[in-house]
Write a structure and sequence with these properties.
By secondary structure, this protein is an all-alpha fold. 78% of the residues lie in helices and 0% in strands. The longest helix is centred in the N-terminal third of the chain and has 30 residues.
Length: 171
């Protein structure tokens, strides 16, 4: 009887990375939601008050966007790969927007995040494990990356519009 040795693959790293971020976002969103709910003065949990708090608080917005790579992990074809890379491009563009347009001052932090995101994008494009897992061929990487990039920018623009629309309503 032979024992197969399973080695740690790039696919495991990327999937684990997104699962950890997804779980941490759920905990942070729940904590933020409960804080907001308590600050609004609600004493009991009712469906109407919970719905009002969800609509007026953006604590679960990151979880909605993190659904893309989580679903992408479950789909073992090019659609799954596109969902994951779309999210990576989306985060890359949002970090750039936060660092430049919104005049955030912590450029070092944003540049570290950008390097991590670019490393993950390179891993998604160069790793043979990823190519085998998602059944990708080298001849269509340019079109897949272009599609993911355009979709990521589109989602970023939608988020920016929603964010500024909500800020203008509150003023």
């Amino acid at each position: 009887m032979t024992i197969k040795k399973h080695r740690f693959r790039t696919t495991h790293f990327i999937h684990g990375f997104f699962l950890i971020i997804f779980v941490l976002s759920i905990f942070k969103g729940t904590k933020s939601f409960l804080f907001f709910y308590e600050m609004m003065g609600f004493k009991k949990f009712s469906l109407n008050s919970i719905w009002w708090a969800i609509n007026n608080n953006s604590s679960y917005r990151p979880i909605l966007f993190l659904i893309f790579p989580v679903i992408g992990m479950l789909i073992k074809n090019r659609i799954g790969w596109i969902l994951i890379t779309t999210y990576l491009y989306f985060v890359f563009v949002n970090i750039y927007v936060q660092a430049t347009i919104e005049f955030k001052t912590d450029y070092f932090f944003y540049s570290i995040i950008d390097v991590i995101i670019l490393t993950l994008i390179i891993m998604m494009n160069k790793s043979k494990d990823i190519h085998d897992y998602y059944k990708l061929f080298k001849n269509n990487f340019l079109s897949l990356n272009l599609y993911s990039f355009i979709t990521g920018i589109g989602l970023s623009l939608i988020l920016i519009i929603i964010k500024h629309y909500n800020m203008n309503i509150l003023q």
